[in-house]
Write a structure and sequence with these properties.
5-stranded parallel β-sheet; alpha/beta
Length: 274
């Protein structure tokens, strides 16, 4: 049995999304966690099982299955496969993330459709660091990019310190992510706002307290409001994540229940825009 710390690391760390590890086989990735390939695969399969169950739960909700059927995921021109790529940080890199649940929803409802999902999210990434992924994004040649980033920019490394990335720099980086990606080939782009925090829970979390890291919901709200003012479509995840059980014990990361709510919000938004 894998110890809880290793399981959490595998859940939230996605080394295969790093530019210098893209294409690495599972044996090499497993070794990074001190696991053999079979133990690593068993963990990934367990996470896949959980996201499939989450997708099945969503499909029982009124209108959700029809919304998945309406998702505009059809190859155009000479393309044989419609390619969906996610950019982001730990909320998306999570093996139980909204993106992985979305992958399962499409697999369950549209098994015959040629749709490919690639998760390039990197835990801990700021918007500044995300800019370095643009070459990898161009190599993927996506048809649709779903981008959820900005929460790590809002870290305070001391109670009275400014945010890790200033609001002005965050806005500049978000614009560059979109605009430079378009220069590499036109691609449909949809933003997701950073999900909200449970501030009291985050303030009490021992590891954040030892590191001196604090979080303020107003900083994420500022990024979310900026995204909602941009011309590209934006899914406001703050409307989906509202309950205590939507958060893990650190108040920042989401439980699979919180991830499931975001997945539903994404499906309904994309289907409504189809």
């Amino acid at each position: 049995m894998t110890d809880p710390m290793t399981e959490r690391l595998v859940r939230f760390q996605r080394p295969g999304a790093l530019p210098y590890l893209i294409g690495a086989d599972e044996a090499r990735l497993a070794a990074l966690f001190g696991l053999d390939a079979d133990a690593y695969r068993a963990l990934l399969d367990a996470f896949d099982h959980q996201t499939r169950q989450a997708a099945e739960t969503l499909l029982a909700r009124p209108g959700l299955a029809d919304a998945v059927d309406r998702l505009p995921l059809h190859p155009e021109g000479s393309r044989d496969v419609f390619h969906v790529v996610a950019l982001g940080e730990s909320t998306t890199a999570d093996r139980l993330s909204w993106f992985e649940i979305l992958r399962q929803l499409v697999a369950l409802r549209r098994p015959g459709d040629a749709v490919r999902f690639t998760n390039l999210a990197i835990t801990g990434s700021t918007t500044t660091q995300a800019l370095t992924q643009l070459p990898a994004l161009g190599f993927q040649r996506p048809d649709l990019v779903l981008c959820m980033i900005g929460a790590n920019d809002a870290q305070h490394l001391a109670p009275d310190a400014p945010t890790l990335v200033s609001a002005a720099e965050t806005e500049r980086n978000l614009a560059m992510l979109h605009d430079l990606a378009q220069q590499r080939g036109p691609v449909r782009w949809v933003w997701l706002t950073p999900s909200p925090f449970d501030e009291p829970r985050a303030a009490a979390y021992p590891h954040f307290r030892r590191a001196g890291i604090t979080w303020a919901g107003k900083d994420v709200d500022a990024t979310a409001d900026h995204l909602l003012g941009r011309p590209e479509p934006t899914v406001d995840t703050r409307l989906a994540v509202r309950e205590d059980h939507h958060f893990l014990d650190d108040g920042v990361h989401l439980s699979i229940e919180g991830q499931r709510e975001i997945a539903e919000a994404v499906v309904r938004a994309l289907a409504g825009a189809a």
